[in-house]
Specification:
There is one protein chain. Strands 1-2-3-7-6 form a 5-stranded antiparallel beta sheet, sandwiched between helices. A 3-stranded antiparallel beta sheet has the order 8-10-11. The protein has 2 domains: 104 residues, Phosphorylase Kinase, domain 1, CATH 3.30.200.20; 288 residues, Alpha-Beta Complex (Aminoglycoside 3'-phosphotransferase, Chain: A, domain 2), CATH 3.90.1200. Helices cover 53% and strands 12% of the residues. Helix 11 runs antiparallel to helix 12, helix 11 packs antiparallel against helix 15 and helix 12 runs antiparallel to helix 16. With 408 residues, the chain is α+β, with helices and mostly antiparallel strands. It binds adenosine-5'-diphosphate (ADP), 5-S-methyl-5-thio-alpha-D-ribofuranose (SR1) and magnesium ion. Adenosine-5'-diphosphate binds next to strand 3 and strand 7. The site of magnesium ion (MG) has 4 residues, from loops.
């Protein structure tokens, strides 16, 4: 089928032709409503007119960047990678990924499970909601998706096949290279330039060559280290959550990249929320919960990743009888420490890019009071700088938590 950008009317016509969708709705009449609040795509809810509880979500990519407009072209092939990633991640851990009911690479769209009782996690965190299962869920999701798509679990040929399947997501990888690692740290038209003009903190950041040198190292890792299949944009806006369940949505930036990048994205966004509660709500109880959450996620991730590894005596990396148990255990300990170090470095870049770069986060850019917003920006840049400057020297998870606590 030839690509056509849908609207609420043509979406109904399109869906009526899809057997599996009409089967889901028992051939009921359907309503379509647009709900997208993301930066890139259009998202619609499809509801049965007879039974409002029966609903699905349709997400379609358009050949431009939605939050800027048609003057910023961006290939809609990104949906091909979102579809592939949703299916791969669902296979690894179905309870954390919306089920796909229909997908069309030609139409650049996916129809998936409607997460009716869940909210975008960023919103919950801003309202100081505590999610008791989140550390358990997200550590399992990250350990499983990263481990099982890496050369620690896969055979050499399967790993290279996986790289091939995602290697074409070039435009979104380039977007991250530009927006996360470059433009946000220099004068650039895409930045939040009203805020950058005459801003001594922005000028200081743009001239901080020690920081920028380390960012280059991390950008190089992002571009060249093909460890595992990443979500690629794992911020708290890509997580839908309630008291009991956690779902990871929106993997259109998926590619085979460094282990630490998804963990770093999550860490950065939790720390941005910590900053919001330091500057705006001054909610000390919630801040302590966030720090414990970060500690728990990183500890549980490390344990689960190593546990998965115990089962895999042979893989692309390990050849049976190659080395004794003690040597392998030492190797694994260093391996996990290096993942944590890289995660910290990536978290620093991800935090700093949200200060003056395009697409800020609500916790900082959304602060209405200019004085408080500036305080939040300064705090974000201080923590980000610590992360980027010290990422190679931390020795444990406690070092990370202390770093966050001690910067103000
Ligand atoms: P974008 O790629 O444009 O960022 P997202 O995938 O983040 O789009 O979706 C935009 C919004 O649509 C989300 O913030 C969420 O509110 C809603 N949404 C997306 N997928 C679902 C889903 N499966 N169930 C319910 N709401 C969803
Ligand atoms: C212009 S696109 C900006 C950002 O939105 C996405 O969620 C990614 O984080 C991207 O960098
Ligand atoms: Mg999104």
């Amino acid at each position: 089928m030839e690509y056509k950008q849908l609207n609420t009317h043509s979406a109904i016509e399109y869906l009526k032709q899809i057997k599996e969708i009409m089967k889901f709705f028992n051939n009921d009449d359907i309503n379509v409503e647009e709900i997208g609040d993301g930066n890139l795509n259009f998202v619609y809810i499809i509801k049965s007119k007879n039974d409002k509880a029966k609903a699905l979500v349709l997400k379609q990519a358009v050949p431009y960047l939605r939050c800027v407009g048609e003057e910023f072209p961006l290939s809609r092939e990104r949906m091909t990678y979102e579809i592939r990633a949703l299916k791969k991640f669902y296979k690894i851990f179905p309870s954390f990924v919306p089920k796909v009911y229909h997908a069309s690479e030609d139409m650049s769209l996916v129809v998936m499970e409607f997460l009716d009782n869940h909210i975008i996690m960023r919103k919950g965190l801003i309202e100081a909601k505590q999610y008791k299962n989140f550390a358990e869920h997200i550590s399992t999701y990250m350990a499983a998706t990263l481990f099982y798509t890496s050369s620690l679990a896969l055979k050499s040929s399967d790993k290279r096949k996986l790289i091939d399947e995602f290697n074409g997501n070039t435009e979104l990888c380039k977007l991250t290279e530009d927006l996360v690692f470059s433009f946000a740290f220099m004068q650039h038209e895409t930045n939040d330039n009203e805020n950058v003009l005459d801003n001594e903190n922005a000028i200081k950041l743009f001239n901080d060559m020690d920081f920028k040198k380390n960012v280059l190292e991390l950008k190089y890792k992002f571009m060249n280290q093909s460890d595992a299949l990443l979500h690629g944009d794992l911020h708290t806006g890509s997580i839908m959550i309630n008291e009991n369940e956690t779902y990871i949505i929106d993997p259109e930036f998926a590619f085979i990249g460094p282990f630490g990048f998804d963990i770093g994205a999550l860490l950065a966004n939790l720390v941005n929320n910590y900053i919001y509660h330091t500057i705006v709500t001054k909610d000390e109880i919630y801040k302590s919960w966030l720090l414990e959450l970060i500690r728990n996620i990183l500890e549980k991730f490390s344990k689960k990743f190593l546990n998965f590894w115990v089962e895999y005596k042979e893989s692309a990396l390990f050849v049976k009888s190659y080395a004794d148990e003690e040597t392998l255990n030492e190797y694994k300990k260093d391996f996990i420490l290096n993942i944590l170090r890289d995660s910290l470095g990536f978290a620093g870049c991800k935090m700093a890019r949200r200060v003056y770069g395009v697409a800020g986060v609500e916790e900082i850019r959304g602060i209405k009071n200019h004085i408080l917003r500036k305080e939040a920006e300064v705090m974000a840049l201080s923590i980000a700088r610590e992360f980027v400057m010290k990422y190679k020297t931390i020795n444990n998870i406690n070092n990370i938590v202390e770093m966050i606590k001690n910067v103000r």
